[in-house]
Amino acid sequence: MNKLVTLVLLVLFISCKKEKQTKEVALNLKEYTIEQFMDNEAVSGGSFSPDKSKLLVSSNRSGIYNMYTVPSSGGDFTPITASDSSSVFGISYFPNDERMLYRADGNGDEIYHIYLRDIDGTITELTPDEGARASFYGWSHDGKSFTYGSNKRDKRYMDVYEMNVENMSSELIYQNDEGYSFNVISSDKNLLALSKTINTNDSDIFIYNRTDKSLTKVNENQSSNSAEDFSLDSKTLYYTTDDGAEFSYVMKYNIATGEREKVLEKSWDVSGIYFTHNEKYMVSFINEDAKNVIEIMDMASGKNLELPDFQNGSITSVGISRDETMMRMYVGGSNSPSNLFTYNLASKELHQLTDVLNKDIDANHLVTAKVIRYKSFDGVEIPAIYYLPHQASAEEKVPALVLVHGGPGGQSRQNFNSLTQYLVNHGYAVLAVNNRGSSGYGKTFFQMDDLNHGEKDLQDCVEGKNWLASQPQIDTSKIGIMGGSYGGYMTMAALTYTPEEFAVGVNIFGVTNWLRTLKSIPPWWESFKEALYKELGNPHTADSVRLRKISPLFHTDKVTKPLIVLQGAKDPRVLQVESDEIVAGVRKNGIPVEYVLFEDEGHGFVKKENQIEAYSSILKFLDTYLKKENAPIDGEIPAKEIEVENAS
């Protein structure tokens, strides 16, 4: 038997085996409740204690996020905080003792404060200024201080402070009067890398010298630039740029001579790099077709480390101990929530610290997404991530949803999403589109929706619906649209400006009045405001005419399809009034509208109780108005309206 015949037979064998496995899963498929899906645990962070015996993490196992420690070789989680209101997110152990830093806001208002938990359990608020937000920037190389940002002096801008860890005294080290953003500080603490936003793609980077107060521009041309790290000797700055290219690559800049040299380039965006504490390794993050790829280079040999092979999962993030011997990493995929591992870089010893998938859920019943591409109305190729239910077939067609990410400028990723898997498990296909204007596919694609939101990007979503309709497993009459934030806007734009294209809409805290949203930007977004105006339009100029035209709130009379709206009352980005008014406007048409309002959430629902309420409401709505054979269409609309409120 020749090699070609053998290869063909092998391919046929594998194909038949996969088809048999798929059929078996479909026959034995179990539909899980939202409570079962939300009983998956979400774990994040992972700061090593000074002796590396344990990690500080955040988990929502109590229903909201709190801090825990877990042995680095595996074992039980020990609760450190027990908040039952605001979520608590661990930042880090102190470098040389077991004190801890964490952050918390006011139920989603994004006014974060930094807190110290002392070794004896005492809690001290380190940034108590009322109404001011604080952001942790990082530890000094000597471990004796950390830098953080605060807008307590001027609500528009984040000044840079250094806090001494011996007495927790704070010193202003950079007064930000021009709207710069902090990127990184050098090991000797004399140089600060700052960025200045030009538009939503481009920014300049500068080096501020604390000794002589000089400010030196690093990049030569207008492009997307981000300072990533200084060399250990503080002589070189490493930064990412897309100058002269579609995708970002890594450059190094000699501070004394001004010379530049390309360090790393891929066929996708290199989204960031950093060096470990003593520069033994360089860690790189590559956004490869909506999937995070991580490389760790040994600086001495110039070769990448061979990392563990997780077969169906991929390493999504890593953190390396200060002594550069231990690594923590998260491993997951579209069909698996991320688990936390530790890895000894010398001995290759690997420990799994979490198993976050609910034991009631058979992992085989979850769906692995695949990347597809389709042509839009003008020939532009649109990437998307497709989830097809196991029970779908040409004989058993299923309803479907076009899912639109947040942003503008976000990206649907090949990551696990509980809501998506929940809907797919219950028989809905999901196509997560990366319409023009999405990040990760080159700067030309990213800028394609500038000043035409609700137009060409909306047509990309309509063409996504058409792609779904061409699939033999999809019921062409039952395709809806869903999204959060900018995706919520796209949902309302679809129902308003293309009212016959989608059967239903799911609007999760979506913008509906661009004039108001752009005028009510949180004060700490001041440095980014002009960039948003350049992309979307300035509401204080003649652009207001177009902004009104593309705002669904002013055109609710065109909506003819059922709608559900979900909103957090504490949302500082998309105000509650946005959802209040769109609901009232659409209801005037006699259209069924369900409204789910959470008094204790912001821009995104983080509490399990609220997630359960939100996601179960979405499924119930879809089952009523999209899936059922008697779903109301073309005027056959029941009079019943439902409003759900969940107060804290």
TrEMBL record:
Positions of the Peptidase S9 prolyl oligopeptidase catalytic domain: 415-628
Domain of life of the native organism: Bacteria
The name this protein goes by in its record: S9 family peptidase
InterPro entries linked to this entry: 6-blade_b-propeller_TolB-like, AB_hydrolase_fold, Pept_S9A_N, Peptidase_S9_cat, Peptidase_S9A, WD40/YVTN_repeat-like_dom_sf
Domain Peptidase S9A N-terminal: 88-354
Gene3D superfamilies: alpha/beta hydrolase (3.40.50.1820), TolB, C-terminal domain (2.120.10.30), YVTN repeat-like/Quinoprotein amine dehydrogenase (2.130.10.10)
Organism encoding this protein: Flavivirga rizhaonensis
Keyword terms, alphabetized: Hydrolase, Protease, Serine protease
PROSITE patterns, per the entry: PROKAR_LIPOPROTEIN
A single MF term (Gene Ontology): serine-type endopeptidase activity
Annotated GO biological process: proteolysis
